[in-house]
Amino acid sequence: MKTFNVWYITSFIISLIVIIPVLTVFSSYFDNTSDYFKLLKNTFLFEYISNSIILLIGVLFLTLIIGVSSAYIVSFYSFPFSNFFKWSLILGFAVPPYIYAYSLTAFFENYGTAYTILKFFLGEGNYNMHIPKFDGMLGAILSISFSIYAYVYILTRASFYFQSNNLLELGKNLGFSKIKTLFKIILPSARPAIVAGLSLVAMETLSDFGAVDFFSINTLTTAIYNSWLSFDDLAFSNQLSFYLLIFIFTLFIIENFSRRNAKYHSPMQGGFKLKEKIKLRGMSSFSAFFICFIIFFFSFVFPVCQMLYWTILYPKNFFDLDIQNLFINTIILVSISSLVLIIFSFISNYGNRISKSKFLSILTTISISGYALPGVILAVAYITFIAWFDNTIINYLEIKSIKKLFIGSILGLVLAYFVRFYSLSCNGIKSSYEKLNRSIDESAYLAGYSKLKTFIHIHIPYLKSSIFFVFILISLEIIRELPITLILRPFNFETFATTAYIYASQDLLEAAAVPSLFLVIIASLFILFISRYILKEKYE
Amino acid sequence: MNKNYLEINNVDFQVGGKVKVKNLSLKIQNKGQIICLLGPSGIGKTTILRSIAGLEKIDKGSIKLKNTILSSKSEHVEPENRNISLSFQENALFPHYTVKKNIYFGTDRNKLNGKKKIEPKKIIKILNIEKILDKYPHQISAGEAQRVSLTRALVSNPDLLLLDEPLSNIDENFKEEIQVKLKQILKQFKITTIVVTHDSYEAFYLGDKCGIILDQKLKQFDDPYNVYHYPNSIKVVNFLNRGVLLPAKVTGQYTLENKDLGLIKGNFVNEHAVGSIVKLLLQPEDLEHDDKSNLQLDVIDKKFKGTNFIYTLKTKSGKYVSVFVHSHHVHQHQINDKFGIKKPIHIKHLVCF
Predict the structure, then answer these.
(1) How high is the ipTM of this complex?
(2) CA of A258, closest CA in chain B: separation in Å?
(3) Which fold has domain B6-237?
(4) What CATH number was assigned to the domain covering residues B243-350?
(5) Are B167 and B201 contacting, i.e. CB atoms less than 8 angstroms apart?
(6) Contact check, Cβ <8 Å, A446/B108
(7) What are the sequence ranges of the domains in chain B?
(8) Which residues does chain B have within 8 Å of residue A440's beta carbon, measured at their own beta carbons?
(9) Which domains can be identified in chain A, with CATH numbers?
């Protein structure tokens, strides 16, 4: 029943809104720029690009090692606390890279926490020269890696979990050793999942603003921010975005392709047999525990303890902070954005489902690329578009300027979040929708239910658990999000993330600890809520 | 005035722009009739049901129910407004509702249109699903799910019931019982039904009429007895696979001769000129076993079917013929034994092509 009904038109408009920033970036490529481009080309452009590449390679390498090894250990072996590590290893995701960066610096800097600990145990001494410094590029690589390795961990673990025991038994049958089974059977089978995880890591790394800015690493993302803010060159900012986007979209396509391939490794193809975990004893049991503990410690315990330590050490910062206000602001953003995103994702998914239009399906696929759009690029593109729209269309219609309505307002912020996290919300609902066979809808129609009634009585009740999952996921992302909030927030409107960033950029790391700690606690709670979904161990 | 209950006139049934069945016309004259459609997989049987239900549109012809046009090139009544139930092959139970809620889902409509109510409890009892009412679809077997889907379709008391392979997942030992119960319900409540199946025995039992769909066309539409015993083409014979075609020469008004079997007597279904060479349809029940006969053929295979044996025999010219023999017949034959056929062979109806 291919019909151009209200669902079709609404989902078409939604897709269009999400696509606008991408189109803006691409169209701005042909705009005139200031001399800043020439200046940059002759001076720092090479540095920006090379830094981005070094950062990317470093983070990919580290997340691959951490993510795959931890996923392998918890998926195939049983050892003390293995069930605890199964979910606790995703808690690192609650610590955004910029907060990890603050903790890393706070601990290892001259006269930092490491120094204080050494002084406490060993007395006065010149320890600073013996304490390693994790700043600059190394600091950025560590901060980003420990914060987002969970992407690789979650996807690889899911792939390992659903690898049939038949495969492993086949390895034994062929006389393979454990190591040979790992490299010849387990890893090749999980490769699409690993690639998908690494692609997400790569996109996040190239999008990162907070950590690289804190460590003063000049990457393409900071260049976009600087060319706009310091040189007031919006067009050039968009041009840089264009280059970065090409790169990121390549990763996006790789990620999508890998996911598609990953389907062929799922138990849905039949022959799935749940495997028994191998019970480790003695030294090997301790080694497995130690590896997981180290990863858990450095990804979560370490930054949380550092923030907690400073919060306790400087209680004044805690009392000076208007926590209630920050909390309310965060709740306002989270609730409005989640609500809007979920409602519109529903409409779009349902529109796609009932219209069966290939054009709409393609448009939706393009529109979910918003997630690949770094926050900085998105914010800049958003401002560019509103300014263009205001100067041309609104000016032509001779009505009141809309700039104030959309820039530096909650509405503007919600719209930008909408574009950025639409794919998260849309895909989250879509993946559950796909499990609901179309004949289910048809059964409802044949029972006399209209499309709207089917939507209300069949789809919403069926999808309520995924709505909750998507809500938490969006909330988690919005709480962690920094550049969009920083650029587009209303005057005097702060969240935990922006407050932490502002303090840190003023070198007031002790003061940044309190909002960071609150942010991490809230994010951890959200992760605990959804860990059951993330680590699901059955096909629903 | 046209009094057919359902009328399908020259419809091309298509899905995704691809025509599956061409120019199909079919009529159900009276309310409460059961029609079975038979055909190989992928031929378009399901597409026909989906189009009648309004889930697919048609570009050619028309579908009328109770003298109202439901589908044509210019008209399309939405599925929710047709009062037609379809029991899907994949069952399509609502995964988040219990079996009970699934069943009662479709009963609301009948409260509104004031139709005679079919008591769900009665159907639930007949189809033996009382024990699973509080379970969710993922907690029940495929066979149970199929019975639930059938119950849901039945209790809505539709103007037209469409069943897509309704018993395909039900255990063999239970299937016959369900077939009987299903037919009783349909007849008791006078529910006009179209059943799609690939099981010819199921179709012959359930259907007042059977349609054979082959090569995008409705090849034959007739009583089950006629479809079985008087297939109207070689393609229908081959599809039903219930006999062999042997070359024979027409020797008289009631006789023909086969090189291996000799003289065969009977009534020709169609006229054939004396002296013409035809292909005679020989079904397993057409031949009689007789150990004393001088027509002895080699036993190639022997299938035990419970109530009877089916022997596959080889003629002198290398053709294979099948013969039914009662399970309790005295002389059991083994493979490579000789098997006697009663002569002269007399077949009630001679179907020749």
Answers:
(1) 0.78
(2) 29
(3) Rossmann fold (3.40.50)
(4) 2.40.50.140
(5) no
(6) no
(7) 6-237, 243-350
(8) 92-95
(9) 1-30+320-494 (1.10.3720.10), 51-313 (1.10.3720.10)
